[in-house]
């Protein structure tokens, strides 16, 4: 069964940035299963978010669909690690169009080649959506506001169920 999860392709020995190919060129079965589950989760959550929209919110719906499409595309980008919510991942694109995630920012690589390949950085959220780093502060404020609203003493689940 092909789910569309891709691993980062190994570079040839001349352009390899990591010394030990033994450590970087291997993927375990557990890693592949975890990547496939993450991609499947992202598709499921995309459908769930769209179902929550209220009538008359077409502009919001378009934004949600665009974000969901971006999130699904980002979940299919090559990545040699299990993605963990709360971490920032840096997206790179080689001159041949090959895209991959790294935990290292362009400055951390210290190579001009990486600065040229760098596309953007995203934080993986607990709901498996992606937040561009430029929007993290805004998203955190939204989550804190929602959390404060949901934890009001007068707000009880029973009010919504009756």
What descriptors fit this protein?
162 residues, alpha+beta, four-stranded antiparallel beta sheet
How is the topology of this model organized?
Blueprint: H1 21-24, H2 29-51, H3 58-75, E1 88-93, E2 99-102, H4 106-109, H5 112-117, E3 118-124, E4 130-132, H6 136-150, H7 157-161
Antiparallel strand pairs: 1-2, 1-3, 3-4
Helix pairs in contact: 2-3
Pfam family, one: DUF2452
InterPro entries: DUF2452
The residue-averaged pLDDT reads: 77
Strand order of the largest sheet: 2-1-3-4
Number of strands: 4
Q: What is the rounded Rg?
A: 19 Å
Rounded to the nearest angstrom, the distance between the terminal CA atoms is 44 Å
Overall structural domain count: 1
Q: Which stretches are poorly predicted, pLDDT < 50 over at least 5 residues?
A: none
Query: What portion of the residues fall into strands of 2 or more residues?
Result: 5-15%
Main beta sheet: 4 strands, antiparallel
Helix and strand pattern = HHHEEHHEEHH
Number of helical regions: 7
Helicity level: 40-55%
3D shape: elongated
The computed structural class is alpha+beta
Quickly describe the structure:
By secondary structure, the protein is of the alpha+beta class. The chain has helices spanning about 20-25, 30-50, 60-75, 105-110, 110-115, 135-150, 155-160; strands spanning about 90-95, 100, 120-125, 130.
Can you describe what's shown?
InterPro entries: DUF2452. Pfam families: DUF2452. This protein is an alpha+beta fold. It has one domain (21-161). 46% of the residues lie in helices and 12% in strands. It has 7 helices and 4 strands. It has helices at residues 21-24, 29-51, 58-75, 106-109, 112-117, 136-150, 157-161; strands at residues 88-93, 99-102, 118-124, 130-132. A 4-stranded antiparallel β-sheet has the order 2-1-3-4. A hairpin with a 5-residue loop joins strand 1 (88-93) and strand 2 (99-102). Helix 2 packs antiparallel against helix 3 (58-75). The protein is elongated.
